[in-house]
Every structure is written in C-alpha cells, then in structure tokens.
UniProtKB/TrEMBL annotation:
This is Translin. The keyword Magnesium does not apply. The lineage of its organism: Eukaryota, Fungi, Fungi incertae sedis, Chytridiomycota, Chytridiomycota incertae sedis. One of its GO terms (biological process) is RNA metabolic process. InterPro entries: Translin, Translin_C, Translin_fam, Translin_N, Translin_sf. GO terms for cellular component: cytoplasm; nucleus. CDD domains: Translin. Pfam families: Translin. Gene3D superfamilies: Translin, domain 1, Translin, domain 2. SUPFAM superfamilies: Translin (SSF74784). Keywords: Cytoplasm, DNA-binding, Nucleus, RNA-binding.
Length: 220
C-alpha cells in the first residue's frame, strides 16, 4: 500500500518560504534607507513653502540635487538584491518609495526649469532604467511609478501657489497654473486602466481649480 502522505513534499516549500523571508528582510533594510533618503530631499524641498524666493528655491534645488546621490545608491543596492525573475514578485515592496523618488526628481526639475522632467532625465537622476513597454526584464521603474510621481506634483504646486501670493509673488501662480493645466491635458491623452492612478488623475482637476482660484484672487 502506497503512502498517502509524504512529508518530504513540503521540504522544498519550506525552503522556498524561508528564502522569501530572508529576501524580504534584505529588501526592507535597503527600503528603509531609500525612505530615509527621500525624506531628506522632501524636507529640503518643503522649505520652499516658507520661503518661496528665487534664491531660496535655487538653494533648495542645489541641496536636493546633491542628495539624489543617496537615492541612486539605494536603488542600486536594491537592484543588486533582485534577480530579473523576482522583480514583479517583490515589486510592491518598493513601489511607493520609487514613486516618491520620481515625484521628488520631477519637482526638483520643475524648480530648476519650470518644465516636466523627461524619462531620460529621470533615468539619469535616479540611475535606474524606466520600462516604457513592459519589456525590460531587469530591475526597473515602471511607467505607472513615473506617472504617479508626475501626478503628485499638482497638490504640491497648488499649495505653493497660495504660499507664493502670501509672500508677495503674484506671477508664480500664473506660471504654476499653466504648467498644471498642461500636465492635466497630457494625462487626458492617456487611457488609464490603473484604478489608483486614475483616482489620482481625477483629483488633478481639483488642484487646477485651487490654483485658478488663487490666480483669480490675485488678478482682482
């Protein structure tokens, strides 16, 4: 009579679970460093709200640009931990932090040139390849992460528009309004299927409205 239950069947499963657990702990360790690096840059850029002068903004951009070397190191360390076949298995562990890095890179470029950062510029800043067509098998930034980073700019700029007026800068809200409207128009061209991203996109129109209200008040 053959044995109904063979305990050795579970040996490989247990080994896989243990390996996954070890891998997740290593990822979490680098992830914490990535989050720390992002917070440092965010703190620097948030200072713009209290002092949105050209000199202060330029100083914040310079400091943030230097701090991105930490982001690049963190992402490089993360990429070394993940073999190509495991990228999508563990992607949810770092996705939010990568989106934040994309947002900070885009915001830094906006302050530098008042335009949207390009994909190639983003790759250069973060030191990681962006997969536009989903055909890149190595560790990469997804286009969804990039778009999430882009869309997060609008809430920051709607707040900045109001703070700029408070500090006597009545020209900046108009420039912000033009930029956000252009960004909104760009997103309208996309056939978004990601529910989370779609909801964020839908929220842009409220930021557009807030900025327009600031502009209308300053014009009267």
């Amino acid at each position: 009579m053959s044995q109904i239950f063979e305990p050795s069947i579970f040996d490989s499963i247990i080994a896989t679970i243990e390996d996954d657990s070890k891998q997740r702990e290593l990822i979490k360790e680098v992830q914490r460093e990535l989050e720390k690096s992002a917070r440092q840059i965010s703190t620097v850029l948030n200072q713009v709200h209290t002092n949105p002068t050209k000199e202060a903004i330029n100083s914040s951009v310079e400091t943030a640009t230097n701090l991105f070397r930490n982001i690049r190191k963190n992402l490089s360390d993360l990429s070394k931990l993940i073999s190509p076949e495991l990228v999508y298995k563990f992607n949810n562990m770092w996705s939010y932090s990568v989106q934040q890095a994309c947002f900070l890179a885009a915001l830094t470029e906006y302050f530098r040139s008042e335009r949207l950062i390009t994909i190639s510029e983003l790759e250069n800043v973060l030191g990681i390849k962006v997969s536009l067509n989903g055909d890149y098998s190595g560790f990469h930034i997804t286009i969804e992460d990039v778009l999430n980073g882009y869309v997060n700019i609008t809430s920051y700029l709607s707040r900045l528009a109001l703070n700029s007026v408070t500090h006597g800068d009545f020209a900046r809200p108009l420039r912000i309004s033009r930029f956000v409207n252009d960004l909104y128009t760009g997103f309208q061209l996309l056939n978004l299927k990601n529910d989370g991203l779609r909801k964020k996109f839908d929220a842009i129109k409220y930021d557009v409205k807030k900025i327009e209200e600031v502009f209308i008040v300053t014009s009267n």
